[in-house]
Amino acid sequence: MQIFVKRYFLLDHENSSHHLWRMPGGGGLPISVMENEAISIVATQHGLLSIYATDKRGVGQSGLLECPISIMSNFSACLPYIEQNRYRLKRNTFTNTARDLQYILDVIIGHDRYLLKPNQRVILMGSSQSTYLLQRYLHLTVNKQQVDAIILDSVVPTDIITLIEFDSYINYILLDLFSRCAQDKQGCSVHFQDSNPMRALYSYQMIEEFEGDSSCLSLLKTNNTEMGKKIASLLYPTLMQLIPALIYRINRCDANDKVVIQHFLEKTPLQYETSSLGQSNLIEFNNDFSELWSFGNGKYKSVSCDFIKGMSANTFSAMHIMGDIFCPAQTTGILGYPTDEYYRKYPPTKTRLPVLVLHGDMDQALPVPLARHFYKQYSLLNPNVIYVELPRTGHTATYSSPIPDQEETCGWQVAISFMLSPTLQPDISCLKKISPIDFAGTTTQNWNQRKPEIILINGSDSC
Q1: What's the CA gap between 293 and 205, in Å, rounded?
Q2: Dihedral over Cα of 331, 100, 382, 371: its sign
Q3: Which of 87, 180, 181, 249 meets the CB 3.0–4.6 Å disulfide criterion with 188?
Q4: What confidence tens digit (pLDDT) does each residue in 244-299 have?
Q5: How far is the C-alpha of 161 from the C-alpha of 154, rounded, in Å?
Q6: Rounded to two decimals, what is the model's pTM?
Q7: Is-contact 104 5, C-beta < 8 A?
Q8: Domains of the chain (ranges plus CATH)?
């Protein structure tokens, strides 16, 4: 089996930099999605860091094992791909992928560890679903420490995550957003009747129910479900602040409002309409259905797709991909693998390996109580775990914590300060600089985005 690894570094610094191993989020995302990020970090840190990126098992050849998201809703069209690669998928487990990582580190870093200077570090960093993978890695290497520290960005707790609640999680953050609107009396709540934006939110949903074909959304040839999917795509910093104004316009629904709402519907893409180039949806589904779909006991021991659709319908905003796309695929029983002895368990042995956990307090995929639960549980095993909760920050803190007029997000600033600190202590001073939720739209700040054309890589190697 071939495993692809790519290293990003500045020439003349490859033998002196810290070694950051970066794992992409998502079940089937390729490392190409992180290329711009890696180039930017290496360049802005002037060679202090070199970044290794490796695809999860099988993703590097995802062109040979693919079922585009565009046909996932007709899952029978994917069955030939699955049948041809059944063995490969059954072996594509979180545990095996963690063993791959352990092996790669031994080959690339372990054998040459004596060549590293005493102050050079090897650090693993994962975002979102890769944090679950790194916890499995920690379990496997509990008695053989290969690295100097680990960073978990938007942590997926190993013991409680259930994907069938995904739309409920999104709904929690929408309610959180409107509670913040209610607290912003001058910039937000003052515009709503009785200064009550929460009432406006449930009024928006009720109006369509009792007005029927004469409701604002019906006149625009849409409905609450389709609007909710569009709204869910806005739950990111610098975008989510638009949602209360959108609800206000839907409730008022004058001629100008209809123009704005129609423009929003036409120009706002759904998150799951397209896949990243090289993404392997089958690998993602295979992992998700085996370990992340549900508890397998208790209240979700056996649920129907209609039940999951009902959970999504009982929200103000939902993606509906769990009930409409994931669940029909899961019920075929053709994807997935038996869980092993590491499933839903934390490592049995205590450790002192430095671990930094970054999590946004408005994470729409993994609401903050999940991260607080992980910190509470894992800190019993490791006194050297540091938990940093970033305000006004969405999913993946390194991406969703923008600072006005700065290219680097606060999440990355905290992570980099941790890696470069002689004592592995993060500098969290940027937390107070994270962009405010500007409901009134009164600021004129610049939001710098990384542009791949402005930074050229000086050197890379791969194996």
Answers
A1: 29
A2: negative
A3: 181
A4: 999 999 999 999 999 999 999 999 988 766 566 667 778 888 899 999 998 765 66
A5: 13
A6: 0.91
A7: yes
A8: 5-57+92-159+345-462 (3.40.50.1820), 170-344 (no CATH)
